User: Fold these one by one.
Assistant:
Number 1:
Amino acid sequence: MTDRRIEQLFAEAAANNWDRRKLMKRAAALGISVPAFVAAMMQAGPAFAQDATPGATPVGTPGATPVATPLARTFDTSNPLAVDPAAPLNPYIFNGGFGIGYAENVNSIYAQTYPGATINFEYGQGLGPALQPRFVAGNPPDVIDNSGANNLDQTTLAAEGSLADLADLLSAPAFDTPGATFLDTLIPGSQQSGIFNGTQNILFLAYTVIGVWASNSLMTEQGITYPKTWDEMLTLSGQIQNEMGIAAWATTGVHTQYMRGFVLDQLIFKNGGLEAMGKIDNLREGAWQQDSVKAAADGIAKLAAGGYILPGFEGLDHTQSQTEWLNGKAVFLPCGSWLENESGVSSLGSVEAVDAFAMSIFPVPSLTATDALPFEAIFASAGENFFVPQQAANQQGGKEWIRMLLSRTAAEYFSQSTRSLSAVAGGAEGLDAGPALASQQAAISAAGANTLTSYYSGWYKDMNDESKNLMFQLLTQAIDAQGFCDGMQAVADSVASDDFVTKFTRPDYAE
């Protein structure tokens, strides 16, 4: 060990009888790099390799990034997917809000299970420009995390038959839950939007909670009570700017899908219920002219007209807007549950500072006091899209990698390291991972059955692209609410009438 801090940390852990989770949390707080820390922890032997479970062995394979993973569970290594154990594997991961550490962890599990396999691990951003040529050439990666801006058009890929059917994976035994199938271990309904024309082509890792974030410590200090209606939010926003001298809201003008998908869509859904959002997702005539849609767009327009959004937001990308918010330039920020991992420590300097900030997620306020759905209703759905290309050289290996990714073992690692929920049922149980994760769990509990999502932006690229353009115009007051609705109706009608665009039907909305 070359880092004196690690030696001191181990001594402190031994003196205080810390378990692995406490040790990892403290290492992060000290700024010790994950690879250096984990390598040292593995060298230290079984005392810190797992959570006080005798006989467990840390995962680690020469040539792979070593990651400590608890192996107290029984793993199914019977190879139910008939993987060629010597075949090379090429995972390609989006390097965004969740980072790549969780994927490196899965690589190490795969390498231990199939020691004869060489893993060519790649990661980056802008997966569309990076990987489209490989699809055209017939040599795509074996498994892909298709997330982030400028990603692959997965709807078109599915319609063209370019994505593998994952039915055999769904029915395979779970990797570390004896007696259960892979599908049995996932949160019910979390994989619904990955079904295209009856075929499961995509599976999702993260169970993302989306809403409005605020510093609970700041709100307590300033005596702020989170509002339950949009009119109350507008009134409070004015008070914040007049009395505190900071902006009420921070958001990104570069990626306006945050304001559209995270705020507007929730306002529509909560006010008009499933019928309002179902008509939009199903491309029904006049869907964007519904009263709920016009009222929601008008609510956003009033936020902009009041000057309640951080000046200069137009040029900020998502991480820049998050940094401004974390640095106290605004009170509210629309975002998903990747927020803390994406910007927390990098902006505030340490895990302790992040915990003291006490970032907490809240539902978007109800549009009115008589909305169809209660205030507690919140957008929550699975995200971080994984699929296996049909032309993958090691298709079964790609499926096996996903089977490991969505195991209880890997899910625990994901939640601990990213402070985010996974789509694995109970994957974060018992974890002490800070206020942000606790607030997500509380929000899901309060919402109960009222967890919501919209589909149109993921199904139809033209609608997604145009909605971002129109939302920017609405936020900058270049158009009014009616102009926004007219523009969205026009693009929706164009998609609906285009025979070359594959159409989808919202599974929970029967007209």
Number 2:
Amino acid sequence: MADYVYIENYSKYGVMGISRRVFETIAQTATNRVKGATVSANKSRLFTLHRPIQAILRSNGLVDIRIDVAIKSGVNVSEVCLKIQEEVANSLMAMTEMVPFNINIKVASIQ
């Protein structure tokens, strides 16, 4: 798994790399902006291997984003998940420009 996505056409002076942590942070802030959903919280343990947001960088430049969300009860789950995908996609396009990506939403809990 790669640690950075490199954008080679950015300028004539060099190559720009975007870390997977940047993609995870953008996805988290965009998900928390959607009403009716929040990023699923980590369980309170001393050591945990579970991350609610994962950005997987492929060697071909594709970024897969997996988000575990908690949905409020009484809302339409499919509409909220679609809004999350749209919000994350718009945020990624605005902040990283030409990076292709896939966004997968997993409903981890209902609050």
Number 3:
Amino acid sequence: MFQTVELPIWALILMGLLAAVTAASHLLFPSVRWFFRRRAERVVARLNTRLKRPIQPFKLAQRHDMIQDVLYDPDVIRAVNDYAQKQGIPDNVAFETAQRYAREIVPSFSATIYFGWGTRLAKWLSRGLYRVRVVGQNHDLIEGIDPEATVVYIINHRSNMDYVLVTYLAAGDTSLSYAVGEWARGWPLRPLIKMMGGYFIRRKSLNPLYRRVLARYVQLSTREGVAQAVFPEGGLSRTGALGDPKLGLISYIIDGFNPETSRDVVFVPIGLNYDRVLEDRVLVAAAGDRRTQFKFRMITVFRYVGRHIWQRLTGKFHRLGFAAVAYGTPLSLREFLSSARDDVAEDLGAEVMARVAKSVPVLPVPIIATHLQEAGGVLARTTLEERFEAEVTRLQNQQVNVCLPPSGPRKGFDAALRLLEARGMVAQEAGQVRLTGKFDDLIPYYAKSVAQFLI
């Protein structure tokens, strides 16, 4: 017992490392976690004093606890048993599959990351690239939404900048939880999006077990009042026009809603539009094949950021026109269900998309694109300007959301024409404005973004 034992140096070092790790995991790590947890709670408490819709406790819960809440739901357990029976596998293997799905879906929200630099970065990008404007007359209706209701923003999907723009504009009201497609599951977007409160969805998955796990998470977060942002089109518009709604997430919310006991769910339509969409050429090129998948590549991001920084340093960068946001008329799910027909999800999807379409802002570039397209690609500048101003007046009289500079339509017309000229899409010769043939397929793309108002 008291004899000397000889050990190699490597074994002694290994034992020392194992002892240090054990001591740290039992003594140091819990204290460190407690310190950062308390600090995070203080940050959230300060944030909630200035947010119109405070961050809900469910969103701040431990990720492990949220995963357990999802997995041990009776409907999920039944789905696990059905999956095991259909696949001919043991129940515990099917449960591990459901656990993998839950870990993939459930976010790990960090208020420090979201409000510390996430919203600041969103503000810098939005205002650095565009002239950001909020237009419309529905601010009072948004302010009047019941503070206890769950707000679900329904947004048309024009660009990946949509996430950035809406995050920036909503930063003073609440934190948003986004449903994000598979394109962003690679590093470094995956951990970043999860810390920003986003949850990943496999849009094309027909696996009933996966669908059940996803539905349960959406229903739990809705029940607990987590503000969400949903792009019902299911992907970026490749034609410029609004797409048909995918009803998956909306149907999950409806299925988990009890008009008598649940807190109300209020759908807020949001219309977005841009004078220039960053991905426009890629989207138009892929418009003919819906199977085309867009993959996130860091090299593309670095290349674009490097070019942008160089343009900034050399003074050659000019902002890309307007990025406009308009709020539509909110829709209460409780009120809608009181008068709904049999197919509630389809009717609700059609109604909210109609309100989104009505709220989409009309910008100078789409107006010019529309009239050049109608004229066959050539139009006298004075005629084009007259038609532009007449169109603006007509739309404003119809209470359509029109985004213009404070100085009026003429300034907006000149700025939009310069933007199109800078891209080489139009040229001015002998008092005429004509399409150059470069990126001519983008003209109908921008025209369709406001086709519901101009055609």
